[in-house]
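Re: flavin mononucleotide structure - here you go.
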Amino acid sequence: MIFCFSGTGNTRYVADKLHDELGDDVLRLPPGMMKRPELINVNVTDGRVIWAFPVHCWAPPHTVSKVMRRATITSDTPLTHHLVCTCGDDIGYADRVWLSIVKKRGWTAGHIASAQMPNTYTSLPGFDIDPKEVADAKIEAVGDRMKAIAADIESGMWGVDVVRGSYPWLKTRMLYPLFRAFLSSTGPFHTNDQCQGCGRCARNCPMTSIQIVNGKPVWAKDCNVCMRCYHCCPTRAVEYGPFTKGKGQFICPGFSIKQ
Ligand SMILES: Cc1cc2nc3c(=O)[nH]c(=O)nc-3n(C[C@H](O)[C@H](O)[C@H](O)COP(=O)(O)O)c2cc1C
């Protein structure tokens, strides 16, 4: 079974490719599950769990870590946990954070892989979506990448096949805590004067954390900062502090957005 969380569809795209190759069902982690992970109780019948999520500041999204720590996952046969994460560029030591939770749970770890997909991070100066040709090339390449990763998972020849990038320790151990402290609260979310109060951000929030109040979105605290609200806004009205002004939007082709 593929446990999938996706903000803007990249990881969902990858999970679907893995499903095509391996036949494993995709379990999309829905808002109710993300908010109350202790209530998750899944019986896995095919002998493996593949965790699929986007890397957020060189670590797993904090809600995914929470699900991993608290969910009840049972199986009648020995179970192996694999990781396939997506990133714009590199994952730092995100896999080690994942692995430490797997070990704490007493689970068996299998293959660990990352795949580059179009970048969706726009909330800091210098970070923007990829130019279209770069995004298209990444999506084009990921089909073969998933075939290779699926073959590795099937073969049992498990290893670590990730793009770590430079200074992984600094990124995951130093920058990630700063990101959690200062750049992952919902406080900086606001709308500019293009907001028409259509509610698409609220309808699509994977945490159901946005409410429309007096015709404008209001963000609750429970949030993955996955930026789906920003990327799916039809009028480019959602902003995160001063940092997203004038930046691009990206939703993975084929990812269904409620209109
Ligand atoms: C909050 C946030 C943090 C991110 N951090 C990283 C990162 O540390 N390294 C990286 O290469 N990409 C990073 N990205 C880009 C995403 O990991 C990448 O675009 C991913 O494929 C998005 O998947 P999704 O569409 O399933 O959410 C980040 C994106 C967001 C929204």
